[in-house]
Amino acid sequence: MLELIWPWALALAPLPFIYRWVRKPAEVRMRALRAPLLANAAGGSSSAAISSWRKSLLLLTLVVIWLCTLLAIARPVWIGDPVTLPTSGRDILLAVDISGSMEREDMQISGQTVNRLQAVKAVVGKFVTEREGDRLGLILFGEKAYLQTPLTFDRKTMQTLLYEAQLGFAGNGTAIGDAIGLSVKRLQQRPENHRVVILLTDGANNAGELEPLKAAELASRANVKIYTIGVGAETQESWGLFGKRVTNPSADLDEKTLAAIADTTGGEYFRARNPEELVAIYEELNRLEPIEQDAEMIRPVAALYYWPLALAFLLSLLIGLISGPREYNRGSHV
Length: 334
What we know:
The chain is of the alpha/beta class. The chain has helices at residues 15-22, 36-42, 45-73, 116-130, 155-163, 176-187, 212-221, 255-265, 275-285, 306-332, and strands at 2-4, 76-79, 83-84, 88-89, 91-97, 107-109, 112-114, 135-141, 145-152, 195-201, 225-231, 236-240, 243-247, 269-272, 291-292, 297-298, 301-303. The strands form six sheets. It has a six-stranded mixed beta sheet, with helices on both faces. Strands 1-2-17 form a three-stranded antiparallel beta sheet. Strands 3-16 form a two-stranded antiparallel ribbon.
C-alpha cells in the first residue's frame, strides 16, 4: 500500500503559479525599427512557432520537476503486508566487561594464547547466533556502562557489534553495579517473566555510582534474573629473574559478590577458567526454556522518495543540456 508521510507538502503545488500571477512581468514599451525583409529572411512565423513550442515544452518540464520535488518531500513509502515476529523466547541482555584487565592473556584457543576479551567474543558470539526467537541486547561496561545494542531479533548485527567491542573503550575501571542498573532500566518495559541478564566480568566493582548488591536488590524487585560469570585463569606460569613463577591472574575477581548477585536475583554464578568452561557455561545457559510471548505484528516500510527526486534531477539535466548549446550559439553570433 502506497502512503505519504507528509501529504501536506503537495498543497504547495500551486505556489509557483500564484507567484507568477501576483508578480506579473512589467510590460516594456520602446520604439523599435521594423525590418520586414530581414524578418522574412530569418524565418518569420516559422521561427516564432518553434520558439512558442519550445517555451511550452520547457514550461511543462518545469511543472513536472516541481511536482516531482514536492512528491519527494511528501515522503512516499510502500507499506508491505503484515509480518508476524517470533512469539517465543526471552529478553536477554548480555553485559560484558571491556575494562583494561580483560586484556590479560591467560586463555588458550586452538593452541594460541589470547586475551580474555577475545575468548569471550569467540564463545559469546556463537551463543548469540543460537538464541533464535530471543530478543538480545548488549551492554558494555568498564568505568562506565553503556548500551551498545538495544533488545533486537537481529542476531547478526548483535554479533557484529560484539566483535567490534574494544578494550578500554569504557574506561579501565569496573562498574558492575552500573551495568546491572542499566540492564534493569532497559528491561523494565518487557514482560516480567522474560527478563534475563548474563553478566561477565574478570574483576571486582571499583567504579560507578551504584553498588552491585544494591543493584541486585533493584533487579530482584523488577523480576530480572541475573546469571554472573567470572572469567580468568586461576594459575599462570611466567619466567622471571629467579626462574619460573606461578601466579593467580584472577586474584582480583570478586566471586563472593558475583555469587551474591546471582543468588539475590534467582540466577546462578559460573566460573570460567578457560574457553572450554566458558563454552560449557553458555551451553547450559542456552537451555533456558523459552516462554510464550504475545504475538507482535510489523509492516515493513520501504522508502520511495528517491524515485521522483531522481526524475526531477534527470529532467533538470535535460533542460541544461538543451538550453546550454543554444545560449552558447546565440552569444557567439553577437
